[in-house]
Specification:
about 240 residues, alpha+beta, three-stranded antiparallel β-sheet, two-stranded antiparallel sheet, about 15% strand, globular, disordered N terminus, zinc-finger, transcription regulation, Zinc finger protein OZF-like
Length: about 240
């Protein structure tokens, strides 16, 4: 289905890598770097296909990952034991995070963007296509270097003071859409960011990041949290 819903955007020039390909939503024009990201966007924003439902409360979701997040936040699971090392995890999501970073972490890490890859060949190809052959944009104000134009444009707002995203509740303005989304979580009253060590919850990701520093030892990266459905439900009220 996705092939009929996107337009391909590629950098000009026959020698450009296919990794520069972009995928655009034909309905709203959103540009995504991966088909999977565009597919999730399209289903969430432009369909009414609620294919996944919570067995405990009946709430319906368009994306399976949103159902998983809902289950973790709203319906307590019993502790789960890792079948590799025997560690007890609070729930299935904590088990997934633990196993991903403790047992199944890709061996090779990119020195530029820190993405991890399975083989040395994958790493070499990634560095070549994603970093060495890409044109760089350098900020004349502070000297910071960017490989993606949209990252460079977002960065420049720091120097220009441009804040194009405004909160519809309190009118506070932000430089990026992600900053606005994190701010809106304060208005929802939801505390979806939960510390994987002590269970303390926070309304914003920054609060959890700061809190985790009080825990000693090496901690895995925070899992990705999908908040679009929470904000959408809040804006409907």
């Amino acid at each position: 289905m996705i092939a009929h819903l996107v337009q391909n955007h590629e950098d000009s020039g026959d020698n450009r890598s296919t990794s520069n390909r972009k995928f655009a939503c034909i309905i709203c024009g959103l540009i995504c770097s991966r088909k999977e990201t565009l597919r999730s966007h399209f289903v969430r924003k432009h369909t009414q296909l609620y294919e996944f439902s919570c067995e405990q409360c009946g709430k319906e979701f368009k994306i399976k990952g949103d159902l998983t997040t809902h289950m973790r936040l709203n319906h307590k699971e019993p502790p789960v034991i890792c079948d590799v090392c025997g560690k007890t995890c609070k729930n299935s999501h904590s088990l997934y995070t633990h196993q991903k970073h403790a047992h199944y972490k890709a061996k090779y890490e990119c020195p530029v963007c820190h993405k991890r890859l399975v083989t040395k060949e994958n790493l070499d190809q990634h560095v070549l296509t994603q970093h060495e052959k890409k044109e760089k944009s350098v900020c004349e104000e502070c000297g910071k270097t960017f490989f993606e134009n949209h990252d460079f444009r977002k960065h420049m707002r720091i120097h220009t003071g441009d804040k194009p995203y405004s909160c519809s509740v309190c009118a506070r303005a932000f430089t990026t859409h992600s900053s606005l989304s994190q701010h809106l979580l304060l208005h929802t009253g939801e505390r979806i960011y939960v510390c994987d060590v002590c269970g303390k919850s926070f309304a914003q990701k920054a609060g959890l990041i700061c809190h985790r520093k009080i825990h000693s030892g090496s901690l895995p990266p925070l899992p990705v949290m999908h908040i679009d459905h929470i904000l959408k439900d809040f804006m409907k009220k």
